Amino acid sequence: MGERLSNTAIEQLRDALHAVGTPDFFEAYKTFFRARIAFGTFLMLRFDADQTPLLLDHWIEPGKLIGRPLEDYMESSYGFDPFYLHRGLPKGGGVFRLADIAPDRFFSSEYYLQYYRGTGLCDEVGLLAPLQDGGVAHLSLSKRDSQGPFRRSELRDLKSYAPLLLELLAQHCNAVAPAPANQPAIARPPLSDAIRGYAGDRLNIGLTVREAQIAGLVLQGHSNASAAKLLSIATETSKVHRRNLYRKLVISSQRELFGVFKHLL
């Protein structure tokens, strides 16, 4: 993949352009990627704030992943996905590697270890394209363990085509995936609300709003400092809330915290 488009690349992009808004787009779009990058999953989704993702189409290499990762993701674990949670996209969207947008403790989180690495995946790249009605189109490519992480050359070449690929993705999703206001959508309460509600209703433990927020951010892979920045509080204040949270739950680690609330995934 150089700066000058080959005849094959031009034909593949033309096919994808002609297929925008039709059932043929996904396969045409995947063909362009497949000719240049090896991957184990290829997923196309629409994200809307506080809504369950809308799965537009998908391909998963048969028999290569462990468990039922797509089902688990769509049912609940999407709420821990850094791509789903990413905010502040540039106007035209962008191409991101998981490591570029994940929280600072994400790769030691129980979600990553159990729900991500546990499936046999080792790396992910995502295209995120803003939609005209406020949603975000997401194209996810993942590598399996046996394939190894994305190579620098693959990432460089993918980013060189990013403007075209993002525009195609946005045009297709604008055409086939209307905003939730025009179709049924399942709202999901904020993770902190679910944590606080479960602690009070089932465990008879009263968590403060801040303690529940800290719990959710820790589970998503944030350190005390990162959580404090998101909540606009001091790092020492974040540490105090975390200590109080652990004391009330009678736990001492992020792993135990995950054990208490993992059913909320």
TrEMBL record:
InterPro entries named in the record: Sig_transdc_resp-reg_C-effctor, Tscrpt_reg_LuxR_C, WH-like_DNA-bd_sf
The family database entries (SMART domains) matched by this protein are listed as: HTH_LUXR
Keyword Transcription carried by entry? yes
Write down the superkingdom of origin.
Bacteria
Q: Mind listing the GO biological process terms from this record?
A: regulation of DNA-templated transcription
Keyword terms:
DNA-binding, Transcription, Transcription regulation
Q: Where is the HTH luxR-type domain?
A: 200-265
GO molecular function of the protein, one example? DNA binding
Q: Does the keyword Transcription regulation apply?
A: yes
Q: Which residues cross the membrane?
A: none
Protein name in the entry: Regulatory protein, luxR family
> What organism is the protein native to?
Sulfitobacter delicatus
